[in-house]
Amino acid sequence: MRSAPFTVTVSVSSSLPHLRPFLSPRTTIPNPNLSFRQSYTTRSDQPRISCGATQTSTNLLPSLSPEIVVREARFDDAWEVADTHCSSFYPNYTFPIDLLLRLNRFVGMVLGFSAPPGCMVSCLVAVRCHELRFWGLDAVFGFNRGYVAGVLTIDTLAEFLPRKGPFKHRRKGIAYISNVAVREGDRRKGIAKTLVAGAESLARSWGCRSIALHCDSENIAAVRLYKSQGFRCIRVPENAQWPEPRSIPGTHFNFMMKLL
Ligand SMILES: CC(=O)SCCNC(=O)CCNC(=O)[C@H](O)C(C)(C)COP(=O)(O)OP(=O)(O)OC[C@H]1O[C@@H](n2cnc3c(N)ncnc32)[C@H](O)[C@@H]1OP(=O)(O)O
Questions:
Q1: What ligand 1 atom has the least distance to the C-alpha of 226?
Q2: Cis amide bond preceding 47, omega within 30
Q3: Measuring CA to CA, which residue among 59, 104, 75, 88 is closest to residue 179?
Q4: Using an 8 Å Cβ cutoff, are 159 and 176 in contact?
Q5: Where does the N-acetyltransferase domain lie (predicted)?
């Protein structure tokens, strides 16, 4: 299995007191249960925590069933996101490589990522809630929070899109999906479809007009998934030299797009 480079912004929950110092003094916290996505709006590339868009997008995110909810990743999801990613893309690695891969991913998420001013990056998770209920106490003590069954990264970095004009400006208005992964035991239940639908909602809320991705042309499951969601393969001219995700040499990617 091959994956695009993982560029995820850590979304932090305002309910985590040790992260409060990172919140800008002007940030208001309307709802402690919301997750906060880092948006990059400063010249110095320092991430500022912003809210508002998150609340809107959270309301827009689709849910597959009461048991499976799609939402933006929170700080406390970082390990499960790393585990879902690594178990999906590198299923054959054993100890200690598998652990190192997860740690690498986990640290990347916890540290956050820099991005140019005005760009958005977010990680969506599909959370499967446990069916066990403990007379409401589970909600109070948070011991029935469910587990991350699927992940997806979406951004407006336009890293893998051709630059525009003589000054090679970054393309705007096109969201890019990467690192879509669903745990093996949760596949073929519509989780990836719901994550993609969630990414589309988020992209629309960011003002994007279209959404793009690269997909290994030999990954039948993924190609079918995106085609079934209305993505179309875009023919890239031979000599175009468009940037492509890092992968095993020889991998052929389909560049796929969908208008929003
Ligand atoms: C841009 C990128 O990130 S590309 C990388 C994609 N990720 C990977 O390859 C990681 C390993 N694979 C996975 O994690 C999963 O198999 C995924 C993400 C490809 C699919 O996740 P799932 O939750 O199983 O997909 P979901 O249940 O939503 O299926 C949607 C559609 O995709 C297609 N599909 C999914 N899995 C398969 C499969 N194994 N074989 C054929 N078609 C498949 C089907 O058309 C399916 O619709 P249907 O069930 O109505 O027939």
A1: 32
A2: no
A3: 88
A4: yes
A5: 68-260
Q: Which atom in ligand 1 lies closest to the alpha carbon of residue 193?
A: 28
**Residue 15 or residue 108, greater confidence:** 108
ipTM of the complex: 0.99
Which of 68, 161, 182 for mutating ligand 1's site (highest number of atoms within 8 Å of CB)?
182
Tell me whether strands 63-65 and 68-72 are parallel, antiparallel or unpaired: antiparallel
- 30 secondary structure, DSSP code: S
Per-residue pLDDT tens digits for 182-227? 999 999 999 999 999 999 999 999 999 999 999 999 999 999 999 9
Query: Which tokens in the block code for residue 54?
Result: 């998150």
Second CATH level (architecture) for the domain 11-259: 3-Layer(aba) Sandwich (3.40)
Is the CB of 254 within 6 Å of ligand 1?
Answer: no
Residue among 260, 251, 259 at smallest CA distance from 222: 251
